[in-house]
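Write out structure tokens for Small ribosomal subunit protein bS20.
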Amino acid sequence: MPNIKSAVKRVKTNDKRRALNASQKSALRTVVKAADQALTTNEVETAKAAIQAASKKLDKAASKGLVHKNAAARKKSRLAKKLNALTANA
């Protein structure tokens, strides 16, 4: 443990941020997984809503630096590609 007051505060701050980032990243993964599962059910409307929610969450995470912007764009693109294939079949 650090002895200097500012270093102690920095450790506390880092712990809080790490916990918050882990929570937000977990929520992001949950939303993306839900969108992916909605695509497998062949219900276009629910899949569209799920993908819209996932896209919003991905954009917000990328803007905050939680995930890289290219990673967010890649995930959004893959979800959109699956949705397009689903709507083409329906």
